[in-house]
User: What shape does this take?
Amino acid sequence: MAQMFTPPLHRQRHQFVIDFVKRNKPKKVVDLGCSECSLLKKLRFHREIDLLVGVDIDGTKVKKKMHGLAPISTDYLQPSYNQLRIELYQGSVTQKDACLRGFDLVTSIELIEHLTLADVERFSEVVFGYMTPVAVIVSTPNSEFNPLLPGLAGFRHRDHKFEWTRAEFRSWALKVCLEFGYEVEFTGVGQAPSGQQERVGFCSQIGVFRRLGGRDGCNMLLCDDAEDVSPYVLLYSVNYPSLRDHNILRRVLVSEVLFWAEKLKRRWMEEKTGAHRLCQTEGGGEECLSERHVEMKEKQTVCEAGMRNLVEQRGKGVSEDQEEEDEVFGTNGQRQEDCCTLHRCVSVPLDVLWSCCPKVSSLSGSLSNLRRLLMDDPEVKLSQDGTAVLVNYQEQDLEEKEDPDELEDSGYAEAGQCSHTTEQGEDWEANV
Ligand code: SAM
Assistant: This one.
């Protein structure tokens, strides 16, 4: 059967939440009736969120896909500054639990129609009276749209206890606002065919509730007259790697420094020996430089010039370095090559790394921080005065072929967003 909505309705509901998140940037978000966590999986890519919680009464459903919320390799390779924590609970939205408090946004997507009307009252009390979030998004089927759904007899799902008209939804929502100090806007997703929108409304109706007074509307500590209850069961929790963790920051910075130090060393050595290559075509001829190459080339030139200058400025310092076990090449490398020592190194000044590699400067914040962070790392060898990274030099370094693309990349792939196919619609939605 042809799909009735493009994109499918469940995706439009999730997109509605994502758009709200993009506009309002809530830091703490809880999805009630999270089922197989498909909305949470999309929300975890929103860097502003630092706590993402899912609650569902059905622990089996949650457990089925919860491991899909674990960080993936790019989260470790390219951690961000935010500190995302995800928690999943088995529990009922009709019960209070201390873990539900302090949220900026609560989402309840196609949940309330699975509750009895008595439980909807309890849900209202828990969400608007106990949790008191800054905003709440509630979506539920609009029964006025049902006659347009092909082959539908009765409710859209066998577990639905009711399906409300727009007026019924409105009446519940306005009562909630009056009782708990919120305002509400009505909207929806799933457009009716042209000419019928006003008569039947949206297929899924949505209420966006905002607490009166915004973030200052209710001080949690002052409002807190509730006992500290915790009937919910924690099923899963995970902390995403963050650059605010000192060890992670250092690991990422060290990889970046080593990568760039190695690159700069090769560039400089190629210059020094005149072995600088132009991009070769398959036939061996010189390829016309593409725009990308030109940009890359310019960047390299700036770096090389900077490096040459700084290495030259340090010409005097080299003699001081001669007491070191390592041989340090500068532009006056000939004199140093004469010294026969065990290890040969190229010295890459930290300030060159700092000015050539934006990621190194943004990660470390200052040149002195950069030195401090590298100082105690066993992978990094600094010169005696701590102003340069020493990179091992081997003859074959010059012989190895270099991939021109690598020069532009920082050694890590851009974070690809993992796409998941686990999305949930209602019974009826699976049929159309
Ligand atoms: N929100 C999901 C989404 O957008 O993908 C789909 C929700 S699904 C239609 C309804 C969910 O509500 C089910 O996973 C069900 O287990 C859950 N549920 C029903 N009663 C509940 C209750 N009292 N407390 C918490 N979750 C409940």
Q: What stands out?
A: Residues 221 and 230 are 18 Å apart (CA to CA). Confidence is low (pLDDT under 50) at residues 276-303, 309-342, 401-423. The first strand starts at residue 28 and ends at 32. Residues 33-35, 38-39, 55-58, 61, 92-94, 109-111, 114-115, 424, 426 surround S-adenosylmethionine (CB under 6 Å).
